[in-house]
């Protein structure tokens, strides 16, 4: 039988034996001892013909295979009693093969880890005495800086709290003077009025910003000669009247009405 394997790929007798079993696609728990022994001896003989120094381990395993083969060829001397199972001569060989495969898998795993480690570069250990010997000096300096920074933080926090006591944050409104002017013109038109009071433009939900914006819009409309305002007494309500648009202003008023 011609073998395509090379001698140097086998690291021992079990390595060769496992290769022959797997190459023949045999069940490891049902080894055809006669066939595998013939292949094994043929390979060992070929190694001798090639003037290869065959190790003793190969010869020992060859002898073990021959012994197992002989036992399996011998007829049973006595009938097997009921309930008693005769031991298979291959049992010990199977156990050794399984153990060999387990250690071989572990060896391959370790080899892979070794190859991965070879791809890593480690930083050489450096002398840190120049830093470790000055720990107390640096620690003392950091504490003073920390105390100074903490005092500065407390002063800033106190100043911010003082400011918050006297000021209130006012959110910017999206409404503009132009929008408020449109609202006032629409108010006159909606209620078909020619005269209204300033307080009628302020509803219950209006805040300070809305009141100021309404007043500013009213000033803008006075400047544009759209309305006239009268206040009959100090701090009294203001009376707002629509100014009849002159010919050249009617276009502008008309634009508001269309909106």
UniProtKB/TrEMBL annotation:
Domain of life: Bacteria
Name of the protein in question: Segregation and condensation protein A
Family membership noted in the UniProt record: Belongs to the ScpA family.
Function description: Participates in chromosomal partition during cell division. May act via the formation of a condensin-like complex containing Smc and ScpB that pull DNA away from mid-cell into both cell halves.
Subunit text: Component of a cohesin-like complex composed of ScpA, ScpB and the Smc homodimer, in which ScpA and ScpB bind to the head domain of Smc. The presence of the three proteins is required for the association of the complex with DNA.
Pfam families for this protein: SMC_ScpA
Gene assigned in the entry: scpA
Keyword Metal-binding: no
Any one biological process term the GO annotation gives: cell division
Cellular component terms (Gene Ontology): cytoplasm
Subcellular location as annotated: Cytoplasm
UniProtKB keywords: Cell cycle, Cell division, Chromosome partition, Cytoplasm
């Amino acid at each position: 039988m011609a073998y395509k394997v090379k001698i140097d790929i086998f690291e021992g007798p079990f390595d060769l034996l496992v290769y022959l079993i797997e190459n023949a696609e045999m069940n490891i728990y049902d080894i055809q001892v006669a066939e595998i022994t013939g292949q094994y001896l043929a390979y060992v003989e070929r190694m001798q013909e090639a003037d290869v120094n065959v190790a003793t381990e190969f010869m020992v395993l060859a002898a073990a295979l021959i012994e197992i083969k002989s036992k399996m060829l011998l007829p049973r001397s006595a009938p097997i009693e009921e309930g008693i199972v005769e031991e298979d001569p291959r049992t010990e060989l199977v156990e050794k093969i399984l153990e060999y495969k387990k250690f071989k898998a572990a060896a391959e795993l370790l080899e892979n880890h070794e190859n991965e480690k070879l791809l890593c570069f480690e930083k050489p250990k450096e002398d840190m005495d120049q830093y470790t010997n000055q720990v107390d000096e640096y620690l003392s300096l950091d504490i003073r800086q920390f105390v100074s920074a903490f005092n500065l933080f407390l002063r800033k926090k106190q100043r911010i709290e003082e400011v918050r006591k006297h000021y209130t944050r006012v959110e910017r409104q999206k409404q503009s003077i132009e929008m408020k002017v449109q609202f006032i013109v629409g108010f006159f038109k909606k209620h078909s009025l020619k005269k209204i009071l300033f307080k009628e433009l302020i509803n219950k939900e209006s805040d300070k910003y809305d009141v100021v914006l309404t007043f500013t819009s009213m000033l803008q409309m006075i400047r544009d000669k759209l309305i006239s305002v009268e206040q009959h007494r100090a701090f009294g309500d203001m009376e707002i009247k629509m100014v009849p648009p002159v010919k050249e202003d009617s276009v502008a008023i008309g634009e508001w009405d269309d909106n």
